[in-house]
Amino acid sequence: MQRIQPESISEIVETVRSCAEARRPLAIEGSGSKSGLGRPVDAEAMLSLRGLSGIRVYQPDELVLTAWSGTPMREIWDALAEKRQHLAFEPAASTLYGSGNDAGTIGGVLAGNLSGPRRPSAGAARDHFLGFSAVNGLGEEFKAGGKVVKNVTGYDLPKLLAGSMGTLAVMLEVTVKVLPAPEKQRTVMMPVSDVVAGHRCLITQLQEAFEIDGAAFLPASVAARSSVDLVRARGSALALMRLTGSPVSVADRCAALRAAVGSPTEELHSARSQALWSEINEVAALLPAELTALWRLSVPPASGAKIAAELGEGGDWLMDWGGGRLWIARRNATVEDTALVRKVVEALGGHATLVRGPEHLRKAIDVFPMEAPPSLLQRMKAAFDPHGILNPGRLYRDW
Amino acid sequence: MLTMPALDEEAISAREQVAADLARLVAPASVIAAPAALKAYESDGLTAYRQPPLVAALPGNTAEVAAVLRYCHERKLKVVPRGSGTSLSGGALPLADGVLLGLGKLNRILEIDYDNRCAIVQPGVPNLAISHAVAERGFYYAPDPSSQIACSIGGNVAENSGGVHCLKYGLTTNNLLGLEVVLMDGDVMRVGGRHFDAAGYDLMGILTGSEGLLGVVTEVTVRLLRRPPTARALLAGFASNEAAGEAVAAIIAAGIIPAGMEMMDRPAVAAVEDFVHAGYPLEAEGLLIVELDGTVAEVDELMGHVQAIAQQKGATSLRVSQSEQERLTFWAGRKAAFPAVGRISPDYYCMDGTIPRSKLPLVLNRMAEMSQRFGLRVANVFHAGDGNLHPLILYDANKAGDLERAEQFGAEILKLCVEVGGVLTGEHGVGVEKRDLMPTMFSEVDLAQQMRLKCAFDPEQLLNPGKVFPTLHRCAELGAMHVSGGKLPFPDLPRF
């Protein structure tokens, strides 16, 4: 594949325009860290945005950061940490979606709408994506959204680009909402007999006013693989609830939560708590080398235990988002197994995405399910990329 | 002067036939065609514009909505959807040749699901009714536009409504899980559900805030939040708006995101105090209300920090609410700001731009200059935390030329917002009000891209035409449109 790595906006615009004229498909990439996510793109040329890098404007007290789309996440995290801020949607710093130990670029995180354990309380990547400039499939540079935290001027195109996997436009500059990072965190850890008990605990406590901002369940076999000593040592399935905020607030809520839970619990403090939630975010326990298919499910939170019981064969799964997100490793990477997973999920509402799997399977199936009439999705694609040259096939099979 | 799409004379002359046809699709009593009765729908919250619709149809369920849209699609009739009609930007302004589709009869709360922390409601349910329905279990629906007693959740989705608490809790778009939507051709589509986030294209994200141009919302699944155990408010007066603005920046820089952070300038404080007697300091040039919520320990701790910051930034007066009653009194003034201004002026015009907060002194100074130049007073209330300005321009509609000057003044304020790096509207929507200002923020290419998306949903552009976009292009033409030097092809094509 021919690799094009422009150093300027005009070069990017020119590249896309000439590809549009020649009807030549173009793969789009930030740093390539998520190359394993989505269907393989059939293109002879690849446009890399690695050269389009750097934070343009960061105004901590305006709560906004504007960067070129190819800016490494590492650079963004460092800049935010210096001002004690963060991206509240908690994108994973992992190799989950590809290979190498590169956390990728801000453009890639947004294009995949990738969010971590804090999503239920703080929103997804799409909720923090305020505005952008981009090049559409005609080679036209355009912008949408804004650079302020509150804006309803025109269609909310940042929402649409979030999760579009580079199939609508090539992002140039992106503006995201940033927020103060919590000073402290603690995790309340409750050993439980099984997923039903653990899940019930999460569902119950999430309805109370503890402001839980991480609610996960680990089967015993997965907890045993944790890098966190206290988690590994329990030898039990665990319900986990994270509390973050000021030291006073965290201590206060932690005591109240433990009292409310009733049964015996333990606390994990700063570094251990942090390590645990990174592990959950990066799905580290489910990524052995021999892994064949890893599914990411988004389901009604109250259905989490039921779906886990039906699909979590062999115990290679974990639950996040209080039951709303399941990561499930399946032994069979087949078209038939895909149909089975989707059938179980769709019966209860929600969707299943194959986030890791062999190329032949990713080519054979819809990696991302279609949630709207295909004809409408296709017209939306054509509104941005009428010749179908941007990442064709990566998100939806035929275009 | 506002120009609307070219009139469909054929539709106007077929009014009686259209009404009769619609009466076969919905309950006959739910079709309104008598001119006197149609006057009830002639405007929304932007009362400067009035236009009775061709007919009004008030369907009672999704199937009837779909039947009406399918009929209008076949007959190529324009349709304007309407919730409670509280839009401040004219989003529900009817068309003389269009059917007004009122969703008010779809007003039931269908299900409350605490385990999934969501509620499924019909679009005509008022915003506040959702919070009331779940209050006994300690839950609420977070977005709280000031019209929340009346405004419908369907309208909130269409406008992506905000409120005073959206810095911490987000706008409508951040608090939705699912929608049922009827497209212009009558097809019913469900997006999302009780789970988080789309797997691919985020249809809910694009439908929310689309101002009724992409589809008609017939069911909404909203997230429910647990109400925090306590909330306290601080009232701080400052000798200048700059000082008040600096305090806001310092609070956020200290890592505190208040539940609400509101600012009022001296004219607004004077009008409010005279009306509500909330005990606001009349000598303050800038008044801040900062509300913190959470556990008692957390609120006490943060309130200490906020007080210290306010003092450091030179607060001339400082009060912390000591009871729930006092907290509500602090808010009573802010929440009555619009009617309070209504008492000191025959009419007022409410603007809604957002700016980077650091530009506040500059914008207020320029606004004061404009106020002199236009000879119209202005009072400012301001969602200080997120930079959303609500200048209230005082005028008298009975004075010749006053409305036009108020509108020009408003347009200049919004242009200034864009000039300093902000946007035309933070929460009220573009509608017809800011439609013609869109080119100050967006290029022809930017707008053409948005309009092409519209064409994917509604290729004949029958749904709420005349809103949001200043010029109309046929969809076929947009597909191949290339812009050179800011000039559009086909300059003779009729546009509005």
- Rg of chain A to the nearest angstrom? 21 Å
Percent helix among the residues of chain B?
A: 25-40%
Q: Segments of chain A where pLDDT lies below 50 for 5+ residues?
A: none
Determine the N-to-C terminus distance of chain A.
19 Å
Largest sheet of chain A: 5 strands, antiparallel
The shape of chain A is globular
Q: Given the structure, what is the number of helices of chain B?
A: 18
Number of domains of chain A: 3
Classify the fold: give the CATH topology of the largest domain in chain B. Answer: Uridine Diphospho-n-acetylenolpyruvylglucosamine Reductase, domain 3
Percentage of residues in strands of chain B: 15-25%
Protein structure class of chain B? alpha+beta
The dominant shape of chain B is: globular
User: Any guess at the CATH architecture of the largest domain in chain B?
Assistant: 2-Layer Sandwich
Written description of the protein model:
The complex is a heterodimer of chains A (399) and B (496). Chain A has 399 residues and is α+β, with helices and mostly antiparallel strands. Chain A has three domains: 1-181 and 369-399, 2-Layer Sandwich (Uridine Diphospho-n-acetylenolpyruvylglucosamine Reductase, domain 3); 184-282, 2-Layer Sandwich (Alpha-Beta Plaits), CATH 3.30.70; 293-364, 2-Layer Sandwich (Alpha-Beta Plaits). Chain A has helices at residues 9-22, 73-82, 106-111, 119-122, 157-161, 195-206, 220-223, 229-233, 247-261, 270-282, 304-311, 335-348, 359-364, 374-384, and strands spanning 2-4, 26-29, 45-48, 55-59, 64-68, 85-86, 129-136, 141-145, 169-177, 179-180, 184-192, 214-218, 237-245, 266-268, 293-298, 317-320, 325-330, 351-356. The longest helix of chain A has 15 residues, at 247-261. The two termini of chain A are 19 Å apart. Chain B is an alpha+beta fold and 496 residues long. Chain B has four domains: 9-102, 2-Layer Sandwich (Uridine Diphospho-n-acetylenolpyruvylglucosamine Reductase, domain 2); 109-226, Uridine Diphospho-n-acetylenolpyruvylglucosamine Reductase, domain 3; 230-338, 2-Layer Sandwich (Alpha-Beta Plaits); 345-433, Alpha-Beta Plaits, CATH 3.30.70. Helix content of chain B is 35%, strand content 19%. Chain B starts with 8 loop residues before the first helix and ends in a 17-residue tail after the last helix. The relative contact order of chain B is 0.11. The chains are: A alpha+beta (399), B alpha+beta (496). Chains A and B meet through strand 8, helix 5, strand 10, helix 9 and helix 14 of A and helix 8, helix 9, helix 11 and helix 17 of B.
